[in-house]
UniProtKB/TrEMBL annotation:
<dbReference type="GO" id="GO:0016616">
    <property type="term" value="F:oxidoreductase activity, acting on the CH-OH group of donors, NAD or NADP as acceptor"/>
</dbReference>
<dbReference type="Pfam" id="PF13561">
    <property type="entry name" value="adh_short_C2"/>
</dbReference>
<comment type="similarity">
    <text>Belongs to the short-chain dehydrogenases/reductases (SDR) family.</text>
</comment>
<dbReference type="InterPro" id="IPR036291">
    <property type="entry name" value="NAD(P)-bd_dom_sf"/>
</dbReference>
<protein>
    <submittedName>
        <fullName>(+)-cis,trans-nepetalactol synthase NEPS2</fullName>
    </submittedName>
</protein>
<dbReference type="InterPro" id="IPR002347">
    <property type="entry name" value="SDR_fam"/>
</dbReference>
<keyword id="KW-0520">NAD</keyword>
Amino acid sequence: MAQQPSSITKKLEAKVAVVTGGASGIGEATARLFANHGAKVVIADIQDEKGRTVAESIGSKNCSYVRCDVADEEQVQRMIDSTIQTYGQLDVMFSNAGVFSKSNQLVIDLDFSELDQLFAINVRGMTACVKHAAKAMVERGVKGSIVCTASIAATTAGEVSTDYYMSKHAVLGLMRCASKQLGPHGIRVNAVSPFVVATPLACNYFHMDVEELEKIHQPQTSLKEAILKVDHVADAALFLASDDSTFITGHNLVVDGGCTV
């Protein structure tokens, strides 16, 4: 259990944050960390039971759950609108929801129906979250922070999963354009790019349990005996969301233990 910060060190005091994909994995860890640092957190996900359970465990005073399929722009807009109606503002958007490839797609036999399904979430969904969070911030004069979850796949190439790598490259393009366009409004836009983290989604994709997945990928980093956990990614997201990164925008914060060096 993460140690509760003191009132002096709470970095998101009086802030309102949305965390998409917040019912499990990186999103859950970040939602909990944001709430520990004083934020009112809205968890947006399609895993209703898990989302409600996480929100309840954080506490109704600090967290609520909203069902939202980010692939549907209208649902994203309604989720942002309901956040504003409930809490009166939006200061932080952690656009984290995403999926892996359904199969090991190669360029020469790319299945466009699978690509379209993945892009609907990883690219269109990410764009909808950035768009509507930014609109809400601009309309209210909020100098907010938008953080997108990318991946080391955003700056590398894959022997398989072409559609996934393409989608994460697109996330960086979106982040950089948004940071340039929203900077004049005082809104910062950044990305966090983790190495493989043993989340439920990743374990399901690789057909491994947590220990197996970590054992295979840890040697690819340059940090001796260090294992990437969801809390490490949450810490990076908190840094980009808070005033600790006041002069940082358009940046891709890679959390990979030196894997891509």
